[in-house]
Amino acid sequence: QAQLQESGPGLVKPSETLSLTCTVSGASIRGYYWSWIRQPPGKGLEWIGYMHDSGASNYNPSLKSRVTLSVDTSKNQFSLKLSSVTAADTAVYYCARRVTGNDAFDVWGQGTTVTVSS
Amino acid sequence: EIVMTQSPATLSVSPGERATLSCRASQSVSSNLAWYQQKPGQAPRLFISGASTRATGIPARFSGSGSATEFTLTITSLQSEDFAVYYCQQYSYWPLTFGGGTKVEIK
Question: Rounded to whole angstroms, how far apart are CA atoms A105 and A28?
Fold first, then answer.
């Protein structure tokens, strides 16, 4: 059974780059689509983008210019980089696996809180 | 972008009663609709996809219905563990979008 664990700095300064990693255990990262989803404090969910180990990717247009996703099959990890962050990027960041055959998310990490502040 | 609107924002229900949650899409998403449950401090959990197919391990008291722009999540005989926030998500169009959530609270 796949388990996901996010990791990365909990505090990022404005204008800097947020970097998070999601480590997949209990399953191979190959053959699936992996997403990042975020949730600002007290608010709803926002899909950031997804990536496949084949290189296929898709991004939320609202964030596309600032987002880089990557997959490292040797480490069974995938990563998020979000550049030029502001306070509006403060959120709990989740990594999640896409359901095979549709674009719902059946496995989620526990989430990691990232605060943007000087 | 498809806008997902959930109503009501908060639903107060007594244990054992029935809860009906609504989700409306700004344009047709066919049956490409998922429901998630989220409890405080936890990640969302997939409950239903394809508008009506329960995920593995989800009790039969949860049922989803609807298509196109109108969807419903029904919880019959609410149990204590069902009090949570529920989100709908469309996956018919990019970007994938979520509703604002319905909080089901104890009356």
Answer: 16
Determine, for residues A110 and B55 on separate chains, whether the beta-carbon distance falls below 8 Å: no
Residues of chain A neighbouring B46 (CB-CB closer than 8 A)? 99, 104-106
Set of chain A residues whose Cβ sits within 8 Å of the Cβ of B49: 99, 102, 104
Q: What is the pLDDT along chain A (118 residues), one digit of tens a residue?
A: 899 999 999 999 999 999 999 999 999 999 999 999 999 999 999 999 999 988 899 999 999 999 999 999 999 999 999 999 999 999 999 999 998 888 899 999 999 999 999 9
End-to-end CA distance of chain A: 39
**What are phi and psi for residue A53, nearest 5 degrees?**
-65, -10
Strand B70-75 relative to strand B19-25, pairing = antiparallel
Report the run of H or E that residue B47 belongs to, with start and end.
Answer: strand B45-49
Phi-psi region of B54 (alpha: psi -120 to 50; beta: other; left: phi over 0): beta
* CB A51, CB A82: distance < 8 Å: no
Identify the DSSP state of A46. Answer: E
Q: Which amino acid is at B68?
A: A
CA angle, residues B68, A107, A94, in degrees to nearest 5? 90
* Residues in chain A within 8 Å Cβ distance of B32: 102-103
Nearest to A45 among B32, B50, B87 (CB): B87
